[in-house]
């Protein structure tokens, strides 16, 4: 049996009782490193909090291992219980869908233990989840690569009065371009996109396109460390949020569409002026 | 302190460790009855499984109580710890947003414990969550009330190649029309919309509109008891799903947009012909 277990967003205590039971009865436990490195602050020797609480030794599986050695993991799952731990919910990322497809093809039984993910936890800001349009991903711009296909999607959502969740780029264990040219893999240091960088890129694209999909006065909500004890949620115009230090990762951003009165009331609690007044 | 704690989708074991800790240190524990009655099979004397596991007595708060007596609940939370348990994630429904707004106005500290909800657990069928358009709600049609504003939304999503999550009507403790006329509240028996009823209503509206937003050959995914041990997920055309007995509540439905290869591979596992072949 392969258990794919969502860990939720905060720390080791966000696992469900069902998930913990599955971990405890598994002979082998893997944790996906791609996002857990950032959200749980897990380093190669920093698993101890999780290992202590779960009572199991845990193997960190980086993206290469998941993609290249999936069959080894699955082979173990044919004859014993294997737990694969994932930050958030198991189906937030394509990689895990792929793992399930491979498992099913090999005839390995799969059980999924759900948990909170960014996709539903953003509800905390008060904007109703059923009033979101298509989600967009904002990649880090480079000198030569500045893709802006998100622009039309945001524009479309806003014309319909819908909110837009922007997932911000995470780069963990990316081979550097230089090392690829040399034929020997070396990795860039991990990077995550901050709210301010996201807004700068959004405004740069708006300036180029000039179709007023949004402006620096458009209301947004910035999130940092969503679901953690020290999460930060701030609502304000793009211009205002540019000045906010959201601190450590992970960040995400919502571009607000038309709001209903209850949504408006909740947003007010997170608005910048109010927050400063309270401080 | 007011803790608003998501219970997840399955049963009492889907609470997180963080949530359980908060329940255990609360002086008073309420559970929202609106959906928990159906999903957890909780009747007035059927709370014992939860109460046993959580080690606390729990008060069932129906919608009237939440809406009319919120201030009593909040008053208790000013001087002690109060836990308010909610099926799924706390921000799936407007009612809870409203409770948070009231709490903040009264100066009551609020902590949210997130969990899985329909909005992210539908990821299990393999359709990527960032490729969904606006969510729609399908209300029970009556002889005189057949609202169809969902039609344009589905049409729009499909034109863009996006998937559409249809939330199906739940009617718990609705005062009957007759009783309202008599001025004395009596309640209709609880009803939940089955996948087949949802599809019948969708096809009726398509026939009236005739704009080919979808047809009986459009691929959909029907879900029953999502996140439970006995969940059922079946993919097929509307016509095919009409014939499937999805069993007890809750149900929901996804109308599939354009699919990527990985999405297609996952959907295949849930397709009807395949399932029958395996049986």
Give the distance, in angstroms, between the N- and C-terminal Cα atoms of chain A. Answer: 51 Å
Oligomer: homodimer
Describe the main β-sheet of chain A briefly. 5 strands, parallel
Strand order of the largest sheet of chain A: 3-2-4-1-5
- Report the uncertain regions of chain A: 275-279
Domain Tetrapyrrole methylase (chains A, B): 1-241
Organism (chains A, B): Coffea arabica (Arabian coffee)
InterPro entries (chains A, B): 4pyrrol_Mease, 4pyrrol_Methylase_sf, 4pyrrole_Mease_sub1, 4pyrrole_Mease_sub2, Dphthn_synthase
EC number (chains A, B): 2.1.1.314
Core attributes:
homodimer, 279 residues, alpha/beta, Cobalt-precorrin-4 Transmethylase, domain 1, Methyltransferase, Cobalt-precorrin-4 Transmethylase, Domain 2, 2 domains, five-stranded parallel beta sheet, five-stranded mixed beta sheet, 13 helices, 12 strands, globular, disordered C terminus
What can you see in these coordinates?
Two copies of one chain form a homodimer. Chain A has 279 residues and is an alpha/beta fold. Chain A folds into two domains: 2-116, Cobalt-precorrin-4 Transmethylase, domain 1 (3-Layer(aba) Sandwich), CATH 3.40.1010; 119-278, Methyltransferase, Cobalt-precorrin-4 Transmethylase, Domain 2. The first copy, chain A, is 38% helix and 18% strand. The first copy, chain A, is built from 13 helices and twelve strands. Chain A has helices spanning 17-24, 33-39, 48-54, 63-68, 70-79, 94-105, 118-121, 150-159, 177-182, 195-209, 238-242, 261-270, 272-278; strands spanning 2-6, 28-32, 59-61, 82-86, 110-113, 136-138, 164-168, 170-171, 191-192, 219-224, 232-237, 251-255. Chain A has a five-stranded parallel β-sheet, sandwiched between helices. In chain A, strands 6-7-12-10-11 form a five-stranded mixed β-sheet. In chain A, α8 (150-159) links the parallel β6 (136-138) and β7 (164-168). Chain A starts with a strand and ends with a helix. The relative contact order of chain A is 0.14. Chains A and B meet through α1, α6, α7 and α12 of A and α1, α6, α7 and α12 of B.
